[in-house]
User: What shape does this take?
Amino acid sequence: MVHEVRGVVARAKGQPVSVETILVPDPGPGEALVKVQACGVCHTDLHYREGGINDEFPFLLGHEAAGIVEAVGEGVDDVAPGDFVVLNWRAVCGTCRSCRRGRPWHCFDTHNATQKMTLADGTPLTPALGIGAFAEKTLVHAGQCTKVNPEARPEAVGLLGCGVMAGIGSAINTGGVSRGDTVAVIGCGGVGNAAIAGAYLAGARTIIAVDVDDKKLEWAKGFGATHTVNSRQSDPVEAIRGYTEGHGADVVIEAVGRPETYKQAFYARDLAGQVVLVGVPTPDMTLELPLIDLFSRGGALKSSWYGDCLPSRDFPALVELYLQNRLDLDRFVSETITIDQVEEAFDKMHRGEVLRSVVVFK
Ligand SMILES: NC(=O)c1ccc[n+]([C@@H]2O[C@H](COP(=O)([O-])OP(=O)(O)OC[C@H]3O[C@@H](n4cnc5c(N)ncnc54)[C@H](O)[C@@H]3O)[C@@H](O)[C@H]2O)c1
Ligand SMILES: [Zn+2]
Ligand SMILES: [Zn+2]
Assistant: This one.
């Protein structure tokens, strides 16, 4: 059977998105059909629309989602119809060289559904990050579904599917932030604020939020920032050193994805400290640093893919922390919208008015 549903499609580079009828096939072997309940609007969706990821138009956008499994294909036994799941875009394969070395969070061969969803005329769609969840139903690889506690609010926990997990994981998994650490986060959008929430959860002693927008800094305090720095008004490296007895922070998380903010992160960490790059740069960006500074400052420079998360380990645990009021995921939900308002949500995101607009399906 083919399911005819509405979905948000980006047809051409830079063009506004449109809501169109799309066709979703029944799940084949290893696949799952998910009735989407909520899906956050992420910067990456806008990147797809702008042709910044690749030019495999038309795209079916949306990838930070939660929903109910409606049907599963042959050979699927980890999830079953009726399960409440958060979707993930790194379904680990279990057999690549990274998985076999016991590092599945770095899996080099993650899974997506093999069948295609299409436009009504049969044109195949490219689902954003292999998900495509701005649609009433979507087809994914069963490994992209992580079962979580169904008492949780879909619009809040769906955000674990991308930006919020990337941020929390950049602090806890990649940066290894632990009790008593000093942490600075540069760029306090959805990802940066989630990094602050992660550092807070892990027991960091000092959490310094840096942004160019005072509104974001206000929000950062709500997630656990102990100090804020507007880097348009004061030098962030000096300020971070100032709040850490002149030393710099143990872990500095870059959540913008630009060379100038990366340099700030590099120089704002303590000797032998860590820099974690979770912001995603564009291919034209380059970085120049004195090699001697790389050596003499020591420590580690890391990148964080999806917060180095393991969805099967991290999603259920974070959902429990949310249900115990120890992780405020509701605070990331700035507004809920309908599937027809995604283009407006891109404008709001562009103007920095929201952390996340979340599409809710009735
Ligand atoms: N590593 C991953 O797996 C992963 C996953 C999702 C998103 N991301 C990336 O994380 C980054 C942040 O995503 P987001 O959703 O939070 O975006 P966002 O646009 O909501 O946030 C970016 C923030 O950076 C601030 N900013 C911009 N220029 C700055 C500067 N010069 N100094 C300080 N702050 C500055 C903005 O005011 C804003 O608050 C993006 O690059 C995104 O692509 C990475
Ligand atoms: Zn693998
Ligand atoms: Zn995303």
Observations:
- Residues 311-323 form the longest helix (13 residues).
- The chain has eleven helices and 18 strands.
